[in-house]
Amino acid sequence: MYKAPYITGNTEADFAGNQYDPTDFFEAEQHMQATARFEIDATAVSTILRGFNSLDKNNNAADLKLRSDWRDAVLADVLIVDVNEYAVRLVGAHAGRECMIGCPVSDFWPPESRPVLAELIYIAMTDTKQCDRRSREISSYGLLCNPVVTVQRSEETKYPEILFLTISGSVESEYFYSNLKASEEHYRKLFHYIPTALLRIDSNGIVEQYDQLKSEGVSDLEIYLNDHPELIDIANKTVRIAEANSSAVSLLGGSVPADCIGPVGYLFTESPDTARRIMIARFNGTRDYAEIAKVRTLDGRILDVLLSLTFPTFLEERDILFISLEDVTERLQTEAQLRQVQADFTHAARISTLGEMATSIAHEINQPLAAIVTNAETSIRWLARDTPNLSKVEQLITRIAASARRASDIVQRIRIMAAKRSPERALLNLNDVVNDALLFVHHEIDFGSIDLSVQLFPSLPRVNGDRVLLQQVIVNLLINSIHAVERSNGNSRRIVLRTDIEDETSIMMSIHDSGQGIAEDDLDHIFDAFFTTKEDGIGIGLAICQSIVKEHGGQMSASNHPSGGAHFRCLFPVEPLQPDG
User: Fold this and answer.
1) What pLDDT is recorded for position 211?
2) 501 falls in which pLDDT band (50, 70, 90)?
3) How far apart are CA 495 and CA 445, in angstroms?
4) Which of 159, 313, 385, 428 could bond 154 through an S-S bridge, CB–CB 3.0 to 4.6 Å?
5) One CATH from 3.30.450.20, 3.40.50.720, 3.10.450.50, 3.30.70.2660 for 194-327
């Protein structure tokens, strides 16, 4: 075992003379490479410490261990002035010297040893023997075995609040130590120059909060945050960005890494619920978490970023984690534009289908209009008699009102189908959607003398979907089947439409016609955009249908039925699986 030398000798040798110079302490000890050395400033807490001492006549610093709230508040205000290289490697967790200076010493001190540190600071600041050195053993610390922490106040009277802190111990070997140094240098280069934006996060404060909550019996952080939303603000202020690589600095609009370092809260100003979800995931022991969130950069831009975290396990450094940020702003904009193009194509396909059904639509509307005209003329004749038959007129007017409502329903149905609108998801019974779709094509079915067999499975589980888009799929498939039957030379003119339960998680809708089927060479291309076998077709109908089915989380397939003709099947996930009620 290579033993790191402890501080030895007189105070002047150790702390470099009569006039205090912040660099002397470190230059004098460069040979002590296994000793982590800190210079800390307790100015902000000196008055509190001495006031506490005035209440403690026996100078019993052990009482301080019982005052955890007071102790943590004090340590949070004791700031790091300087550190040597080994202190950075030992407790800086690759943060770098610049990131440690100016931070509370508690940010880089393990929770289990904080009572010892607080006690030594307390003694150093309140003991009348100003420059006496006090040491305590602590549990294994990083690379050190049997470490000893020592605190001593500056000998220079002009700087009574400056303390010198060392952590000394033993390492496995000089060879191990040099290899570790090389490994850490490799890590730093990898961290800073990797093209992915990375932030190293020090979450020590919130990890302690979690431990406290769990010890108090809190098992559901989501419920707890509903009653204590202030914990999110505490986390945003206490969890710190300790290091940022060059890619993160560029993404966040900074000039140097120091611009990005500080409380993590600014990352969540535009997406405050993201912080909440991350906290819940960490509390629940989730290993990985990712979501797309909006981030306001330091130069005022709003970015959409894919924010990813891998949380450390209990056996790892629980207070250290990394956040990776990927700018997906352009990707989301492109996807939005693509969705708009798809929506435009879907709308165009619907209009095209309605155009093919123009004769049927005209017939549908003409029927109630003709009935209205007939009943109105008959009513006039009954009223023109010497003795008007008001009872008969009342019957005719009732028929007129019913026909008018029917015409209005037809127009409304067509307007909904033709409208350009955003999808509106709802829990639907697919059988109801099928029945709505049949209203659009029943005239073509009747006019073509086609035998339509509709076999709907009762009490289908519901699907989460857009009624109009699903109607569009069914109408388009039925129109294609009608055309296929009309083009066939066979005597059979038959279409079978079925719904059924495929398995526990999905339901099925299929359409099988008695046409000539799909050419084998065309089966692999039947859903390609602009592929068509019709002389006057444009080839977007089936492509749109497949995209709608996929958008609903389903699958669509085409094949030739063993008995002849084309067979189209659509599978849709059920949500939730429950009978109609």
Assistant:
1) 81
2) very high
3) 9
4) 159
5) 3.30.450.20
User: What does the alpha-carbon distance between residue 51 and residue 40 come to, in Å, rounded to a whole number?
Assistant: 20
Instruction: State how far the Cα of 74 lies from the Cα of 249, in Å rounded to an integer.
Output: 32
Which residue type is seen at 240? R
Q: What is the pLDDT of residue 530?
A: 63
Query: Which residues of the chain does CATH 3.30.450.20 include?
Result: 2-176, 194-327
pLDDT at 10 over 50: no
423-581: in CATH 3.30.565.10: yes
Are 505 and 573 in contact by the 8 Å Cβ rule? The answer is: yes
Cα angle 163, 75, 73; round to 5: 145
Residues belonging to the chain: 581
Ordered alpha helix ranges (H), 419-499: 430-447, 467-487
As given in the structure block, the two tokens for residue 350 are 């619907």
Q: Answer left, alpha or beta for residue 376, where phi above 0 means left and psi between -120 and 50 means alpha.
A: alpha
Dihedral (Cα; 113, 109, 171, 24), 10-degree rounding: -120
Q: Is 169 helix (H, G, I), strand (E, B) or coil?
A: strand
- Looking at residue 269, its amino acid is T
Helix (H, G, I), strand (E, B) or coil at 151: strand
Where residue 59 falls (left for φ over 0; alpha for ψ -120 to 50; beta otherwise) is: left
Helix 230-238 with 204-215: angle, nearest 10 deg: 140
As separate numbers, helices (DSSP H) first and strands (DSSP E) second, the chain gives 19, 19
* CA atoms within 13 Å, Cβ hemisphere of 226: 4
Q: At what angle do helices 467-487 and 430-447 cross, to 10 degrees?
A: 30
pLDDT band at 471 (very low <50, low <70, confident <90, very high): confident
Q: End-to-end CA distance of the chain, in Å?
A: 77
The token pair at 454 is 């509709």
Looking at the chain, the domain(s) classified CATH 3.30.565.10 span 423-581
DSSP string, 51-100: HHHHH-TT--GGGGGG-HHHHHHHHHH-EEEEE-HHHHHHHSTT--HHHH
The CATH code for residues 2-176 is 3.30.450.20
Instruction: Please choose, from the candidates 365, 385, 362, the residue with its C-alpha nearest in 3D space to the C-alpha of residue 373.
Output: 365
* Number of alpha carbons in the 13 Å side-chain half-sphere of residue 120: 26
Q: CA of 129: how far to CAs of 126, 132, 166, 188, in Å?
A: 9, 6, 19, 43
